[in-house]
């Protein structure tokens, strides 16, 4: 376990990535506007080997991270400024991003997941929002996109089954995107001076767990999928045990999909070797 | 599996083999309930459960079933409803906040893991306890509004129990002190996201909550409900608050104590008092004239002390911080107002620190309870009475009771267990992300 003040972690960490090439762990700290990088074998109250933080870094509330081991870059999703920031893998201190994706054309809002496909040169971002025009789904950009650019494709709509999503993972060997569709309810923003302004005083806000909308892990393809399309594969239902999964990763070697569930406060592993067969992407 | 505290990264070694464990968790939990004669999970498909998905219970609702059927039919892969080959789920409670009611001789603790409140007799537990203690009452279930629960308090005068959700639920729930089971709160107060600690002020009939993201504490009337706003707040760069957690109001000396982890962002970087779907980005708020010079910082963990009449961007009266203080991710704080001592649940190094109430600056604690004999592991809550010190462990299935003046590597006088001795905790605290370390074959889980 890595914990304690010297780690510069926080109790609010909603993203994590592992760089197998360089044996490093990458985690955002949204409460200190930082990204911290540890050696892979870090334990106890161990300081990070590098920290990206500062005005030049452009970090505001980093929520999610990904690493591109092939091209040596770290990707950060930052919903505070609704932007994606890309850093050199070895960036340290108050380092400026090498690229930034931001602006109204991007459709980036509440960015909660990010993944990169260095083989197909694609960048996938999960985002949600109830704001007018807001997308709740996947935005697919070119890996090297920069500035106020529109995504190449958007996967969103009722057929996806996604009402709210969180972390995503991507297997470059197959181009499959694994999506944690948490599908729980979330509450309107709280303004301390005008709590829940605009809401009827008689309204009862829903409990985030009492939604009637079951979460799942869904699988899409990063090449070809576009628009309101159903997932190619699902992990969903009473036997799975998962109710509202918030994260997802995989162990391709063993054909396993791994998802934490916030309702159970637990971690679930599923055997789905067919999802890791190399070759063509899944077809419906 | 590594036992752990609420924060930090957990590494779970994946065992060999792929046992079939369909519904294993439910079976495990029911078995634990039977063995320990305690409620760990609401009844399946029964009782007062609504048709919606309750906390801690897989849904069987019509809407979800219809949704699953529709999606499964659309997906090429029809093997969607498959059991996990492995799961890491702790079927037992994990203690977090603690409050002792010396009037009625009872102890209230929050349970983050199974999402409940547990009440015990004040004298519960023993030095040699190996079995789980049977609570006097437990509040748990979908009607309770209890989720990722943190701070707790008892108002003995009004016979009320208070509990605040730290994440997701964004609400404080208030129960009659006789409530049990799947009880509806008598009041709900919607509160800022990431509220963590609760402090009562009987003189003013108020409650104060610490709030992590905006580095502040807010004060409400005790009987505030629903969308009632705070009567005042203390927030701003001069307050010195940075990722605040524990809070305590010393009514004798009219002071407020706040424990800070040390993660800091200036207001410029805070777009909303929520992690969800801010109404506006910095750019929109400032018309694209926002400053790019604002930056986050790491400051030393601390305890800051304020005048209880403070409001706005008030500087602390005193700050305890620095290497001599040994403060490291402080969670709960409590003041012995009669004996003028401050107790800190020091989560980062598994200790309890005791300072003079008026300590200030980079000062050594006057006593430290730490070491293998103490059993302190991931302490979250702390409470002091005339003679005893209560510590709620998150890293072990225990709460510990020490003599008030305990110091050093000493064994507790009583242990209150919420699981049989030897049961490890998962250490999970609302896990929202995961990564796979292919080199070590480990799963990384931030909390």
Written description of the protein model:
The complex is a heterodimer of chains A (about 280) and B (about 450). By secondary structure, chain A is an all-beta fold. In chain A, about 0% of the residues lie in helices and about 35% in strands. Chain A has strands at about 15-20, 25-30, 35-40, 50-55, 65-70, 75-80, 85-90, 100, 110-115, 120-130, 135-140, 155, 170, 175-180, 215-220, 235, 250, 255-260, 265-270. In chain A, the strands form five sheets. Chain A has a four-stranded antiparallel beta sheet, with no helix packed on it. In chain A, strand 6 and strand 7 form a beta hairpin. Chain B is mainly beta and about 450 residues long. Chain B has a domain at about 95-260 and about 300-415: Neuraminidase. Chain B has three helices and 30 strands. In chain B, the strands form eight sheets. Chain B has a four-stranded antiparallel beta sheet, with no helix packed on it. A four-stranded antiparallel beta sheet of chain B has the order 7-8-9-10, with no helix packed on it. The longest helix of chain B has 13 residues, at about 25-35. Chain B is globular. Residues about 1-5, about 10-25 and about 40-60 of chain B have low confidence and may be disordered. Strand 19 of chain A pairs antiparallel with strand 2 of chain B, so a sheet runs across the interface.
């Amino acid at each position: 376990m890595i914990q304690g003040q010297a780690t510069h972690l926080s109790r609010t960490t909603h993203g994590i990535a592992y760089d197998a090439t360089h044996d490093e762990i990458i985690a955002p700290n949204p409460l200190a506007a930082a990204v911290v990088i540890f050696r892979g074998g870090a334990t106890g109250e161990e300081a990070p080997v590098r920290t990206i933080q500062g005005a030049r870094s452009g970090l505001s509330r980093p929520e999610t991270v990904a690493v591109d081991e092939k091209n040596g870059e770290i990707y950060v999703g930052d919903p505070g400024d609704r932007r994606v920031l890309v850093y050199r893998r070895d960036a340290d201190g108050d380092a400026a991003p090498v690229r930034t994706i931001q602006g109204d054309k991007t459709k980036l809002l509440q960015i909660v997941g990010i993944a990169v496909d260095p083989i197909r040169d694609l960048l996938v971002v999960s985002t949600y929002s109830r704001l007018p025009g807001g997308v709740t789904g996947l935005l697919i950009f070119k890996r090297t996109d920069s500035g106020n650019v529109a995504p190449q494709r958007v996967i969103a709509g009722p057929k996806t089954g996604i009402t709210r999503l969180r972390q995503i993972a991507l297997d470059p060997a197959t181009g499959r995107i694994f999506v944690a569709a948490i599908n729980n309810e979330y509450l309107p923003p709280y303004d301390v001076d005008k709590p829940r302004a605009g809401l009827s005083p008689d309204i009862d806000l829903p409990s985030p767990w009492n939604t009637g909308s079951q979460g799942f892990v869904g699988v899409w393809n990063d090449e070809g999928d576009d628009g309101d399309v159903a997932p190619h594969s699902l992990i969903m239902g009473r036997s799975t045990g998962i109710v509202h999964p918030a994260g997802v990763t995989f162990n391709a070697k063993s054909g396993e999909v791994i998802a934490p569930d916030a309702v159970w406060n637990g971690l679930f592993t599923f055997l789905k070797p067919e999802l890791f067969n190399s070759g063509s992407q899944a077809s419906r | 599996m590594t036992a752990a505290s609420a924060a930090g990264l957990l590494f779970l070694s994946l065992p060999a083999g792929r046992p079939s464990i369909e519904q294993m968790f439910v079976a495990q939990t029911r078995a634990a309930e039977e063995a320990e004669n305690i409620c760990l999970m609401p009844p399946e498909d029964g009782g007062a459960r609504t048709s919606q998905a309750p906390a801690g219970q897989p849904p069987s609702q019509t809407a979800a079933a219809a949704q699953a059927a529709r999606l499964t039919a659309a997906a090429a892969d029809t093997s969607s409803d498959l059991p996990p080959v492995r799961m890491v789920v702790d079927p037992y409670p994990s203690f977090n906040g603690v409050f002792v009611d010396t009037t009625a001789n009872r102890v209230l603790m929050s349970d983050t893991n199974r999402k409940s409140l547990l009440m015990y007799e004040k004298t519960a537990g023993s030095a040699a306890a190996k079995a789980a203690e049977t609570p006097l009452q437990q509040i748990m279930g979908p009607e309770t509004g209890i989720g990722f629960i943190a701070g707790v308090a008892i108002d003995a005068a009004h016979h009320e129990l208070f509990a605040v959700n730290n994440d997701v639920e964004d609400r404080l729930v208030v129960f009659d002190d006789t409530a049990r089971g799947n009880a509806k709160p008598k009041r709900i107060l919607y509160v800022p996201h990431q509220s963590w600690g609760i402090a009562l002020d009987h003189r003013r009939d108020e409650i104060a909550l610490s709030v992590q993201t905006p580095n502040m504490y807010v004060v409400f009337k005790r009987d505030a409900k629903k969308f009632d706003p705070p009567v005042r707040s203390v927030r701003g760069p001069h307050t010195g608050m940075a990722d605040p957690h524990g809070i305590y109001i010393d009514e004798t000396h009219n002071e407020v104590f706040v424990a800070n982890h040390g993660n800091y962002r200036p207001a410029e970087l805070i777009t909303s008092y929520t992690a969800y779907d801010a109404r506006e980005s910095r750019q929109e708020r400032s018309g694209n004239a926002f400053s790019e010079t604002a930056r986050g910082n790491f400051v030393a963990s601390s305890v800051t002390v304020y005048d209880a009449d403070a409001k706005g961007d008030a500087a602390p009266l005193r700050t305890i911080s620095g290497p001599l203080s040994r403060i490291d991710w402080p969670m709960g704080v409590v003041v012995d107002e009669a004996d003028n001592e401050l107790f800190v649940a020091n989560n980062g190094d598994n200790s309890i620190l005791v300072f003079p109430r008026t300590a200030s600056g980079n000062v050594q604690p006057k006593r430290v309870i730490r070491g293998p004999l103490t059993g302190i592991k991931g302490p979250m809550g702390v409470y002091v009475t005339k003679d005893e010190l209560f510590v709620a462990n998150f890293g072990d299935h225990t709460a510990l009771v020490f003599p008030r003046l305990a110091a050093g590597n000493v064994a507790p006088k009583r242990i209150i267990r919420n699981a049989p001795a030897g049961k490890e905790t998962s250490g999970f605290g609302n896990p929202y992300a995961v990564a796979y370390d292919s080199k070590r074959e480990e799963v990384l889980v931030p909390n």
